Each structure stands twice: as C-alpha cells, then as structure tokens.
C-alpha cells in the first residue's frame, strides 16, 4: 500500500528486491550487470551505494563466491562484550569465563577417571 503513493519509490523498491535476490542466490554476474545498468537512472543515494559496490567489486565477489565468513566469530565477540557490559565487571575471571561458556552453550568435557594397570 505504501508503494502505491510513489511510482519512483515502487521502482526503487523493486530494484532493491531484485538486487537482494541476486545477492542471496550468489549470482554475481546478474548482480553487477543490474548495478551497471541502473546506476545512471537511480536516486543519488542508490548511486553512492552502487559506486561503492563497483569500487569494491573484488571483495563483494569473494563474499559471494567463497564459503568463508567470520559471522560466527563476530557474533561470539559481540556476545562477550554484552556480557561484560551487563556484568559491571566480574571479580573473578573464572566466573566470567563460566558465564560466557553458559551463554554459548559450550560444555566443558570432563576428563575420564582412568585406573592405572600397575
């Protein structure tokens, strides 16, 4: 309904959805072809974003084509910072460490008791 108020808004929204589709499908050729095709006709804000994508094309291609990501590591770092901020400083580092392990649902493996055969 909101898109019916402005034809320009609707066109930009459809362009955004199409770019998002190509990005999620990891179709880099169509993604960059669409950017190069539409860069002259879109809103200046979109033009700035498109120029950034074209300037960093090699990085975007790596993100689309390679299976590597540091998202899990960044999420873990963010969780630790949130725990640290909410705790106002733990007195004991071991308690801080335990709180992080609980939040990450990491179970510490216990060493098994082994009888020696002496």
Automatic annotation (TrEMBL):
Residues 2-100 form the Transposase IS204/IS1001/IS1096/IS1165 DDE domain. InterPro entries: Transpos_ISL3 (IPR047951), Transposase_DDE (IPR002560). Transmembrane segments: none annotated. This is Transposase. It comes from Streptococcus suis.
């Amino acid at each position: 309904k909101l898109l019916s108020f402005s034809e320009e808004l609707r066109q930009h929204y459809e362009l955004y959805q199409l770019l998002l589709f190509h990005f999620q499908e990891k179709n880099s050729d169509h993604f960059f072809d669409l950017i190069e095709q539409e860069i002259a006709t879109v809103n200046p804000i979109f033009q700035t974003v498109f120029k950034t994508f074209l300037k960093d094309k090699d990085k975007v291609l790596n993100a689309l084509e390679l299976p590597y990501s540091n998202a899990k590591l960044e999420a873990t770092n963010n969780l630790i910072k949130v725990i640290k901020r909410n705790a106002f400083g733990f007195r004991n580092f071991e308690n801080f460490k335990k709180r992080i392990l609980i939040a990450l649902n990491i179970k510490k493996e216990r060493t098994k008791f082994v009888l020696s055969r002496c």
